[in-house]
Amino acid sequence: MSKGTVVLAYSGGLDTSCILVWLKEQGYDVIAFLANIGQDEDFDSARKKAENLGAKKVFIEDLRSEFVEHFILPAVQANAVYEDRYLLGTALARPCIARRLVQIAQKEQAEFISHGATGKGNDQIRFELTSYALYSDVKVIAPWRIPEFYNRFKGRKDLMEYAQKNDIPLPITPKAPWSMDANLMHISYESGVLEDPKCSAPTDLYLMTKNPDEAPNVPDVLEIEFKNGKHGVGRIDIVENRFIGMKSRGIYETPGGTILLQAHLDIETFTMDKEVRRIKQGLGIKFSELVYNGFWYSPECDFLLHCINKSQENVEGKVQLSVYKGQVYILGRESPKSLYNEDLVSMDKQGDYDPCDASGFIRVNAVRYVRIKSRVKLEAQG
Amino acid sequence: MSKGTVVLAYSGGLDTSCILVWLKEQGYDVIAFLANIGQDEDFDSARKKAENLGAKKVFIEDLRSEFVEHFILPAVQANAVYEDRYLLGTALARPCIARRLVQIAQKEQAEFISHGATGKGNDQIRFELTSYALYSDVKVIAPWRIPEFYNRFKGRKDLMEYAQKNDIPLPITPKAPWSMDANLMHISYESGVLEDPKCSAPTDLYLMTKNPDEAPNVPDVLEIEFKNGKHGVGRIDIVENRFIGMKSRGIYETPGGTILLQAHLDIETFTMDKEVRRIKQGLGIKFSELVYNGFWYSPECDFLLHCINKSQENVEGKVQLSVYKGQVYILGRESPKSLYNEDLVSMDKQGDYDPCDASGFIRVNAVRYVRIKSRVKLEAQG
Amino acid sequence: MSKGTVVLAYSGGLDTSCILVWLKEQGYDVIAFLANIGQDEDFDSARKKAENLGAKKVFIEDLRSEFVEHFILPAVQANAVYEDRYLLGTALARPCIARRLVQIAQKEQAEFISHGATGKGNDQIRFELTSYALYSDVKVIAPWRIPEFYNRFKGRKDLMEYAQKNDIPLPITPKAPWSMDANLMHISYESGVLEDPKCSAPTDLYLMTKNPDEAPNVPDVLEIEFKNGKHGVGRIDIVENRFIGMKSRGIYETPGGTILLQAHLDIETFTMDKEVRRIKQGLGIKFSELVYNGFWYSPECDFLLHCINKSQENVEGKVQLSVYKGQVYILGRESPKSLYNEDLVSMDKQGDYDPCDASGFIRVNAVRYVRIKSRVKLEAQG
Amino acid sequence: MSKGTVVLAYSGGLDTSCILVWLKEQGYDVIAFLANIGQDEDFDSARKKAENLGAKKVFIEDLRSEFVEHFILPAVQANAVYEDRYLLGTALARPCIARRLVQIAQKEQAEFISHGATGKGNDQIRFELTSYALYSDVKVIAPWRIPEFYNRFKGRKDLMEYAQKNDIPLPITPKAPWSMDANLMHISYESGVLEDPKCSAPTDLYLMTKNPDEAPNVPDVLEIEFKNGKHGVGRIDIVENRFIGMKSRGIYETPGGTILLQAHLDIETFTMDKEVRRIKQGLGIKFSELVYNGFWYSPECDFLLHCINKSQENVEGKVQLSVYKGQVYILGRESPKSLYNEDLVSMDKQGDYDPCDASGFIRVNAVRYVRIKSRVKLEAQG
Questions:
Q1: Which of A16, B30, B337, C172 could form a disulfide with B271 if both were Cys (CB 3.0 to 4.6 A apart)?
Q2: D284–chain C nearest CA distance, Å
Q3: Which residue of B244, B277, B344 is in closest CB contact with A246?
Q4: Is A375 one of the catalytic residues?
């Protein structure tokens, strides 16, 4: 008797292959789901592998344009950056994948979903909050939080042995001494040797961007697209705060996202009223925290997406920029919706502006100083 | 009969030289004050020039360490960045200069101060708000806002003619087709040919940083100091919102400030609690706006400086970084006040953390979703 | 030769009657505009008076429903309160009046508008920012900021004399020793004897609300409508911060607005997700400041109105409340869009909630404490 | 063999008496701790009761002045109000009690603490976050989250039976059909018949405040103190958002707190710069959320307390107010630190203020409108 059907977020790697087999061992029927979000993967062989391991069904779906349109673009519009630096490449992919995961679960009348995320990270939260939001009765099996599982598989060695016993193909290439998460927007690297925050990341770690010293000696004036970044743009090394309250060290490369962010910041300030910008900046910071913490499908994220979207009505135009040796340089911008007024701002023309007005403006801004000074004087005398 | 004494913020250039003479012409005694904040200037010859033009007294004062300690460092602690990009190099210098300006005015019993800032810019506000804050009865003479002055001097040509007539030495080097403001932290470039926001800045504009393509082919591991930046770090080209409501285009180079900002962001996140960081981030954004708008010496800026200072109590440690071809790369960090816990975060150790707790954490975070779903269901049925 | 046409915001009182005549004296054609926003006024006799004083045209328009629908209701939705107490009764009326004022100016091809607001208050800003926003080329004549006017009319006595000389009917009732602004939402009282902030307001000052001790001894269960408040609800006495930087003392009575605010707060929390509420609360505070400062017709206020409006999609339902002796008591509420779940929250039922989850929730919320404690311990030992 | 020692937050009531006995039954030594925070309780008989039930030790401690000085006063300074209405009377008491609880546990070398808070409420979180913050290795026994306990005691009836069997004295007075939490600041009422949000609270529910219709017919001019409120001030009925994600309905009476809050709001605005006030208002809202959610002893709450404390440096003075029939009326205020300037604000005097400055102030504030209008015009034409 089956305990029911589980849709497993399957990556094709060792961990989720073992989980697939283990779930079957526990008495579940397993449907494997693998999303194509632009990672470097042999999807055909992943399908075969899952079938061989006993998956009842295997879904492999191309979510790349959905990922770009519905997740990356809103984040660019929000200028979404977590803790001033991280562009949220993984955090944006998770709700995209999890959404499809629970859609499949609902279609296939599966009560359960499962994933291979650890019990200490953000991804478990992102997967599961999305799942609860879209399929409120779903039951989650998170093996890395189940004592029978994590006590049995204490390290990679245990997984390897289990794989051997269960005809799970072993990885051909030796495992890098860190873990990785890749999609069309970025690659993140963490744990393993990277856990020591004072150790420099190895120079051969980066897969998506060239080392800036090997980058071309000629800058590119950009056509914006999400592709491998030959100029080494978008590498960061940060210690960040996980939702769960730990600090963790991550190394990220986000070439296209970095360029898009810089370009968007530029054209936004060019076309958006400054006070709207100020309010929207606060909303964007809040949005970034929510996305990082896994609340993409929450009422407040819906609300913020709506507000941010409204703020973008007039944000259009062209930004010229060059990318060179790891850096993005804005060169110029133009827009039919520009709020920049060359006559008004020009030092050489008076435009529609009476400089005398500034005297009143400044003096009125100083009115509240006066009383404070008098108080200070009184206190000094008193 | 003198109309009184004016302390003039004197730069040694054509504009303030003409203003010096014009103020005397209007019947004032003029004291010239020139601050050394690290700009490239021949201070001796500037002193002689001012004396020759009839200044009653000339004060030339070295404010460099005051500028670094009391203005730049608090800004670094605040991660102060205006509109997500501008590091406030000019905005920080203004209150430092104006503070000394009014101190001199008070000491010399001068009723008036004067400056050469235009009527459209931020600097007039920064100078004057500082002045009103510290010397509330001061009277400000801002020639570029006085019709008799600005109607008489409609362009550089009028100033040149006036200079010739009044034995004001003409600038030897031809004027760059833009205006500049330099100090030890940064140089800003604006107006003139830069007023067209779609035109790229000339490559020979930059004086403080090397072009990245001429930068050394070997990165430097950094010793942090405010010096010329041979790696081309810290160049930006932005359209920003002036306090006065106009958008203006500015090009900035801030090599040391950029490195310091990156280093500080890193060590701060490493040593500061995440929720304190979140609150402090908001205060830092507010602080940046205030500094940009000229409110350094305001009650609210005092308050924020105090709060931000408190937040820095445990922010200490070392950041290793490399600078190469226009970019700063963080390599590693260590701190006696680190809140990073390698055991706790490690994927390979369990540390003091029970992964099962995460299940409850996630489910409780999803509690409020449930009711919303039910409502949605009811509405769909209704 | 006329200097042009002015549309004057005419109140029917002594000040604006004098201004009307004075404007004519200065060579302008004057159109008088008087808005009915629910104040107690004999509009027919005001029309005759303005005609007799030489107004070229007189517009008297009923803006009451526009005021309620387009200004008061959005403010209620925003829970708009300035500095935690003032419900913005005057601030909301100003853009409503000024909008019509400039519409008339445009229709009548008048280049000028004028008003009787003082040079120290908020109303001048509210009138004029609205006017510049909607009719950017308009020219404003603000007599109380024109030296020839305010030096000539230094007090009420001068106005009375001028009125007598110019056949301006003198007020029949003696002037109250304070100034008032009334509309259907509220009456404000300020200046005169109220300027001493430690003096209690006279008990016979209030016109809109009964003294609570004379209020009925039986509470009313409410039907919400903007009418005179017989229960004495909504009186406040505050010192507030004007936009212009002064603190001023105001006494307000806003019976209907107070009841609506309480009712709206109640039903909003009942039907709105808590995190949406939190974001929206911040937007509402910003909105209140903008309205107070006169920025109703600004891009940022537009943006906020849009966002706040979005947040109200599910805010509907009925609130039962009683009003008694100056106070509003919420009794109960119900809503088809309620997010309140009696089963879930009940102490007597378990509902769809596993109390064990709370243990994990709490422990994960405490994860970041651990490291801080260790640091503190280390420091104590060190 | 004892499993160890538990310090139990003991209230003297049925629930915690049963928990005391149950904990002994489970093999623990139990120390009972009862805090006097101003609730109406016979502490002597509570002590005897706990001793009779087998408590190894009983600590009854008077925390009233600590509660007032270290918890209530900072909250008043913060103008702490949760979701615009709740004055946090229970939320403030919890960390005060829990702090002493873990101090006793540490002194008595007890590994465990226990409390009678339910698994759905905020109090469990407040107790436990405080405990983890101050005693990071403490182990928490929360019976209402332990299946063996809550499945055994499904309702009051089960507790009563258990009491009878175990010689636990039964409550003499019949239980009110709701639960209560009282301290010197407030009483809260929730659950039971109050769980239906549309049902009015019974008029005889309130214990701390008189019904306004029975309140004296003469107002009191106030001397501020935390005592029973004979004027019926401070009653609210709200639906609020628990940290745990549920909405719950609470009825509160906080007479003294309400008066203090109104008085503090008044004197604060009178003596504090308006922009400091604005920043501090945001910090106070954040502070209120943290206190509500149980984060009193968190790094961010420490930080906020420090900042808010700084903001209060000049907040001093006297507020005259009257309380009458459920409402607080501010009558006047005075302060040696007042920033109110009667001359400056007066309509009858010009003071140190040039009304002409306001023209420039307003026009500069409208500068950014101009460009937007042109864009709109262009779009209309285009």
A1: B337
A2: 12
A3: B344
A4: no
Give buried/exposed letters for D209-238 (b at 16+ CB in 10 A, else e).
Answer: bbebeebeeebeebeeebeebebbbbbbbb
Cβ contact (<8 Å) for B311 and D303?
Answer: yes
What angle separates helix A123-134 from helix B356-365, to the nearest 10 degrees? Answer: 40
Give tens-digit pLDDT for A107-119: 999 999 999 999 9
Q: Are B130 and B99 in contact (CB under 8 A)?
A: yes
As a whole number, the mean pLDDT across chain C is: 90
Write down how long chain A is: 382
Confidence of residue B230 (pLDDT cuts 50, 70, 90): low
Cα separation of A103 and A59, whole Å? 11
Q: What is the 3-state secondary structure (H, E, C) of chain D?
A: CCCEEEEEECCCCHHHHHHHHHHHHCCEEEEEEEEECCCCCCHHHHHHHHHHCCCCEEEEEECHHHHHHHHHHHHHHCCCCECCCECCHHHHHHHHHHHHHHHHHHHCCCCEEECCCCCCCCHHHHHHHHHHHHCCCCEEECHHHCHHHHHHCCCHHHHHHHHHHCCCCCCCCCCCCCEEEECCCCEEEECHHHHCCCCCCCCCCCCCECCHHHCCCCCEECCCCCCCECCCCCEEEEEEECCCCCEEEEEEECHHHHHHHHHHHHHHHHHCCHHHHHHHHHHHHHHHHHHHHCCCCCHHHHHHHHHHHHHCCCCCCEEEEEEECCEEEEEEEECCCCCCCHHHHCCCCCCCCCCHHHHHHHHHHCHHHHHHHHHHHHHHHC
The residue from C17, C29, C47, C123 that is catalytic is C123
- Specify whether the CB–CB gap between D79 and C84 falls below 8 A: yes
Tell me if B273 and C358 make a contact (CB, 8 A cut-off): no
Q: Give the separation between CA B44 and CA B49, rounded to whole angstroms.
A: 9
Residue located via tokens 């502490």: D43
Smallest Cα distance from C296 to chain A, Å: 13
Dump pLDDT digits (tens) for B58-111: 999 999 999 999 999 999 999 999 999 999 999 999 999 999 999 999 999 999
- Give the pLDDT score at A281: 97
Q: Tell me, what DSSP letter sits at residue A313?
A: T
> Which tops the pLDDT comparison, C242 or C75?
C75
Q: What is the pTM of this model?
A: 0.93
Helix axis angle for A299-311 and A274-293, nearest 10°, is 150
The two three-digit tokens of residue C98, written as one number: 């000024």
Residue with tokens 């540390």: B351
ipTM (interface pTM): 0.91
Euclidean distance between CA atoms B236 and C135, whole angstroms: 37
**D196/C213 Cβ within 8 A:** no
The amino acid at residue D32 is A
What tens digit of pLDDT does each residue of C140-195 get? 999 999 999 999 999 889 999 999 999 999 888 788 888 999 999 999 998 888 98
Q: Which residues of C touch B285 (CB under 8 A)?
A: none
Tokens of B44: 């001796």
Strands B327-334 and B318-324: antiparallel
Instruction: Name the one residue in this structure whose structure tokens are 């010399």.
Output: B108
The arithmetic mean of pLDDT across residues A308-329, rounded, is 89
Give bridge partners of residue B240 from the DSSP assignment: B248
Report in angstroms the alpha-carbon separations of B320 from B260, B265, B268, B329, D171. Answer: 11, 13, 14, 9, 67
Contact state of B299 with D245 under an 8 Å Cβ cutoff: no
Place of tokens 């105001």: C250
Using beta carbons and an 8 Å cutoff, which residues of A are at the interface with D? 273-275, 314, 337-341, 344, 352-354, 356-361, 363-365, 367-368, 370-372, 374-375
Which SS3 state, helix, strand or coil, does residue B382 take? coil
Predicted confidence band at C225 (pLDDT cuts at 50, 70, 90)? very low
Residue D94 appears among annotated catalytic residues: yes
